[in-house]
Input
Amino acid sequence: MNKPGFFRLLTLSISMVLFSGCVMSSNVQQIDRLESVGENPRIVMMPPDVKYYLLTASGVPEPNVEWTTAARENFHAAMTDYAASIGTDLAFISTDSLSENEIRYEALHSAVGSSLLNHHFGMMKLPSKNGKFDWSLGPEIASIGENHDADYALFVYYRDYQASGGRVALAVLAAAVGAGVATGSEHGFASLVDLRTGDIVWFNVVNAGAGELRNKDGAVTAVRALFKDIPTARGSGEPQ
Amino acid sequence: MSRLRPLVLLAGMLACWSVFGAERETLDHRIPPGYEPVKEEDELGLWMEMREYEQALKRSALLVQDEDLNDYLQEIVCRVAAAYCKDFRVYLIRNPNFNASMTATGMMQVWTGLIVRANSTDEIAAVIGHEISHYTLLHSLATLRALKKKLATGTFVDIALILATGYGTGLGQTMAALSVMSFSREQETEADLLGVRLLAEAGYDPHASYGIWQKIIAEEEAAEVKREKPGAFGKTHPDAKLRAAYLKELVTNRYGPPDAETVADQRLLSVLNNHYMLLMEDQLDTNRYGRTKELLERHAALGVEPSLVRYFYGEMFRQRGEEGDRDLAKSAYLHSVELGKAPAKAYSNLGYLYLKEGDMDNARTYFAKYLEIDPDASDREMIEFYLED
Amino acid sequence: MIYRISMLVALAVLASGCVSTSYTLVEPGARAFEGLQVNATGGWNQAPPMHTPSMRKGAALWTHDGPLLDQLIIIPGVADGEPLMKSSDKSAAMPLFRKDMLPNEIEELTESTFVKYFGEGNAVVTTRNLRPQRFGEHRGVMFDVDATVSDNPNYQGTAGSFVANDKLYMLFFLGAVPHYYDKHAAAATSVIQSATLTGGSNVPVSN
Output
């Protein structure tokens, strides 16, 4: 098997930050309102990385297609409505139609997102930043804006591990002997990128209780939690 | 070498024979061509995950996009798969280790390390036939279910590892999770048996099915001497000696002895010659000289362009740097140059070797020749520095 | 095996409460690493040892935006027969420095080391533009690097290296593409080119 080098361990240990509950604050807001040259600020939604798993007693998370499909559909619907309600013009890009360039930016965004979680929200602060939030994807991302005629790009990542009955039982058993067993979790983050500068102008992390994407109402709640205080054309976040 | 070994081997073979005996006449594909999972939820989930993984794989920088190499593999896959040809997508990945794998969705990975280790297209076909069999015998799903049972005690570390692999578009990460799922011995035997049948039916040499195992064994032994680590395929496909033995027995009984003479495989030779630099560069980078030497000897015997093989001998000796290696490297490069098709780097590396010896005249000669052959060399500034010195 | 042990360690650390592993600010100006001296520009942070298990003793990792985005690795005093980076896996076959190495060999040593740093089979590392460079009184080389690592953005880099008193000194900068390499390349290159040996021998190394 491929032997993971130090780099891989770094990426994974950053993921661990999410699970350990060591994320302190959860939201960053750089701007209050969206701006656009045109009439209505247009946001392009990168293919949302949403996945649902069943966490069985054995510890093997099973990707659950029914839940994931439902979650993605509901997310899409809730997102469309939400965007309309806050007066934002939202365009969805599907995974199949990503260009080479867009794929590069997705990879870069994952790395930037991980770095954010670790160094801004997490404990491994970078003293030179002095608390400042200045992570960017760089101004050359403007080409994505041009291709989609958009002012901003929205990236979303969401994972939900649902504990099965067997899993919960195991957790109870494990707790009795002082061992730790994860009983499922959900978490996600969303970031809004200004396509003219590449700056992340808004970033939000959500943990447990955000809302259940598998049903329509739950998705609406989840979307609101995920996009709490997202800047709009009218000013931050309250939908009509 | 334990006395018991031959006995254990025999016992193992007899055990496998019993599998043969019962299954030989009946071992067949378990799913039809064009199969899609329908009912079981865990199967659907696995398919979805695999599809996403495949999307990520298509975008991987480690994917080899060369048309010639991909056509070569595709031809082999379709011939061996017969009616199932359309169920597979084959991806050639830049990895110097010997490996090939198959997922439940018909996504096959072949690593470049496999191509450099084959002596014939038949041997590549043998490995592909084995992987195809894992697919049509529905082993992936059975393994996932077995794994769930096996991990019922579930450790915290395992969970964390697997949870963590959910992050991002999991190319390496999903494979990491998959790596804990190697097939059972029975499944490996089944895949061997059906694989041989597919191989023969496609018109390939069934003796290649154990030929490739023998090569792997030889390479592992050469590596062992140097205390190099066991290969990926070896780890996930144990009992190489046992399998080479029973496959030889099976094939000889069913299809007769191997041909007395082997004809050079022109198609494979052409693939190796046209892509030798790409295929062997990564092998060199592994720093595992015992293995590299074994491969070069094989390629020389196979008839790969001698200029290229000599060049890589030069590279190998130069990088290994043991006592006497410098001279061996020098003669290898000189030989490569003599044979007429030496890559440009043969000249610059000769320049550096002469430089080390203090032979400035020869160093300059070869450096100058290097720049003549490759005027766009990216290290021109460095070479000119030595020429002006 | 090593993988699981590392995960266990990482987990144990995290499970013990929110353990702070601190990056420290690198003060601009002269910074020394076992006889190697560089001129640090502003804004670099030095990683704590827990974050850099592959680094030899005395080596350091600097970053502006986090190692996944940009990293400057400083490796002083590698002796004959030693590898550039550590690996607790004995079968990793890390390439070793030899004191008579010429520029082309140092380039290969670096390439091969970084493939293993990223994980064999996970990365393709290529080098180009090998060119002579002076480091104080010492003749050395610089070259450029491209690295493709699975599950990560691509990386572009620049390395500087020289041999003095039979020891290798290596400085290596990597930045994610797009944007992060460009953002920090000038600063990193300036740090690399400022490298020199303090005290000790000022005699230029002969090839």
Observations:
- The two ends of chain C are 42 Å apart (CA to CA).
- Residues 1-20, 200-207 of chain C have pLDDT under 50 and may be disordered.
